[in-house]
Protein: Glutamate--tRNA ligase
Organism: Salinicola corii
Amino acid sequence: MTVRTRIAPSPTGDPHVGTAYIALFNLCFARLHGGQFVLRIEDTDRQRSTAESENMILDSLRWLGLEWDEGPDIGGPHGPYRQSERGAIYARHAERLLESGHAFKCYRTSEELDALREERKAAGLHLALKPQDLALDPEEQRQREAEGYPYVIRMQVPSEGVCIVQDMLRGQIEVDWAQVDAQILMKSDGMPTYHLANVVDDHLMGITHVLRGEEWINSAPKHQLLYEYFGWSMPELCHMPLLRNPDKSKLSKRKNPTSINYYRRMGFLPQAVTNYLGRMGWSMPDDREKFSLDEMMAHFDLQRVSLGGPVFDLDKLSWLNGVYIREDLDDAALLQALREWAFNEAYVGQILPQIRPRITTLSDAMPLAGHFFAGLPEVSEKSFDDVNLERETLVALLQFLVWRLEAIARWEKDELLDQVKLLAGHFELKMKAFLAPVFIAVTGSSHSTSVLDAMTILGSDVTRARLRQAIEVLGGVSKKQAKRLEKQYREL
């Protein structure tokens, strides 16, 4: 048997360090066994999936040195490797489940589903909806079918008993079937959900081992059941521990920069980031901190993975990155790294039009453009003293902007301008007054290049990190304040 593993990211935003973490372990496991590593794009969310996000995922994984044997960009014998191009395959398999009685058409409306859940909650019952809960009166079912009502295809699931899932790290995992709902397999728009597409693709692509995050443990019974329904052998499962914030909560962009793009733009070396991700819940036999990707693959042992939630500590990553710079880069290599990082033609070419109208001598350039070549600017409470806004309003303004910027699909100047206009109207401020604190947070100064142009060039990750830093130096947002602000934000 040839070992085959995969990573299957969704192109719905910035490339996440958690994706790289899982990709790294899948790659190492495959290489240890002389196997193959596959990259598949799970883009069934047609509203949020973008080609830009897919390209960023491929680029960032390659930047980290994580190369795949088959994928949407290089092809392979099991393509296509984008789920959006495999619709007919999923439709055939969904029909097969309907014909065998292992799935059913559900004509329930969203309002009816909400009502069912509320009824069950009020009665103190489990909230998982079973086929019998969703069943309509036979006459109503026939009428809706005859009238062409929209429907989804759901899987049949047991109501009682326990599902036992075998895990390579955790042994036997028991999940009560009462907690497993009749999962939607095909949406009303004809697109598959993750659950059907994942199982069908893993089987057809010959995946033998699935290393994925532990958040998928509760989905394992559904996947195991689908393999049984199709009569297929299930790949071996391994649920990796989730990356954690220092407070042990799940790693999230609201508490930590999570995009690979952020670490790249901040000047971290790819080999240091890959090394650090390898230390997330795993260790070399000699427990050394610093090791290359090749060394990790040569010594990889899945049983050395610790199930305790690994903490993603930015200070520790920064320390390791410094070790790499000092030990691995001589002057020539450091100069080359600096050129590749920020002093390259493509990046500088974006900055020159911003500073050209403002300089009289070349020495004017760096004071004007310094923030483009920095990490987080040096700002303090005093930096905002000249902003004519109450402190509470100032924090709310910056926090609302962070939330708006987290939600936009296209990081382009016109989109950023739209968000600023919307929020300026909400706070009843002129654009100049609204942008004053944003200017300081993003550039570290009240006098520099256009802040919207700066945000566009710096990118989403660095911009949001700088805004979050400003919020923290202004006192931060307590849990009580966050609830109040979120309520106000929802009213926008």
